Amino acid sequence: MNNELYVNNLTTRDNGLVITVGNYKGGAGKTSHSILIAYQLSKLGIKTLVTDLAPQTNVTKALLLTKSANDPHNINTVNKTIMYGVANKDFTDLPVKILDNLYLLPSFTDFQDFPKYVYQHTPKAYDEALILKPLIEPLKHNFKIILLDVPPMSKEVTENAVVASDYTFISLQTQERSLTGAENYVNDLLRYKDAYSLDIDILGILPVLQNKSGSVDKAMLDAAKQAFGADLVFRTVIPHMERIKRFDITGISNRDRFDKKVMEKYQNVTQEFLQKIYESEHS
């Protein structure tokens, strides 16, 4: 892989790319993918923003812990969160620096009011999906990649994220419910693409194995390739790794051999991620 070419493709862009990480099935690994791919992108010198669009705030917690772990002498304070930005129609001063080239647009539990806000501030159904796009668009001047982490089942958040995005990236656990969740997500994606004349593509599908030697996992992986096309499914698969779950408690670290095993996997994922962007834009 020509990684330098793929990185240069992004760092020399005038405007960044917005990518939604999706699947309607909860626990499919969306949040872990968002923060760990963003972490790897930042290490490659690609200025990256992770936008937490979930009131559960898992992305926010994990990245603020990462910030604390790397800068323990500074107290983490977040004065403005995404719902504040929605209410004030401006996201430009919300990003919080986590590490060099890695930023967070933080969420809080008040984001659970987003659906209510949507219905109170739109004159017709068509406008319900157009709340976030004008707020995210100015951020594309400052960041090369903007990842949107969305909750598993929220029509209002999902359609707003999709309409604001250039690509979507699907996380897929190798189990039937996750495959169904991905298929339903893609069906809605096609519906939004048609309704809003979107120029959005599926960047790829990243499998997360429940049991790397299990027959069910292999069958689900084969089913995903058949359903979506083998070219869309990442060559790299993420096995079950306890250390990934620990990052939710400690923040992302790269110290011991268990950390490094996770980092090696996500370095490979990020290389494919960048390759797919390059190939999509130069096909």
Q: What overall geometry do the principal axes of the alpha carbons give?
A: globular
**Order of helical and strand elements:** HEHEHHEEHHEHEHEHHH
Any idea what the CATH superfamily is called? P-loop containing nucleotide triphosphate hydrolases
Q: Report the C-alpha radius of gyration, rounded.
A: 18 Å
Beta content comes to: 5-15%
Indicate the percent of residues in helices. Answer: 40-55%
CATH topology group: Rossmann fold
The total tally of domains equals: 1
CATH architecture: 3-Layer(aba) Sandwich
What can you tell me about this protein's structure?
The protein is of the alpha/beta class. It has a single domain, classed as P-loop containing nucleotide triphosphate hydrolases (Rossmann fold, 3-Layer(aba) Sandwich), CATH 3.40.50. The chain has helices at residues 3-11, 30-43, 58-70, 82-88, 114-120, 133-136, 155-164, 176-195, 215-228, 242-250, 257-282, and strands at 17-22, 48-52, 96-99, 102-105, 145-149, 167-173, 201-208. Helix 2 runs parallel beside helix 3 (58-70). 43% of the residues are buried. The model has no long low-confidence stretch (mean pLDDT 91).
Can you give me a brief rundown of this structure?
This protein is of the alpha/beta class.
Spell out the blueprint of helices and strands:
Elements: H1 3-11, E1 17-22, H2 30-43, E2 48-52, H3 58-70, H4 82-88, E3 96-99, E4 102-105, H5 114-120, H6 133-136, E5 145-149, H7 155-164, E6 167-173, H8 176-195, E7 201-208, H9 215-228, H10 242-250, H11 257-282
Parallel strand pairs: 1-5, 1-6, 2-4, 2-5, 6-7
Antiparallel strand pairs: 3-4
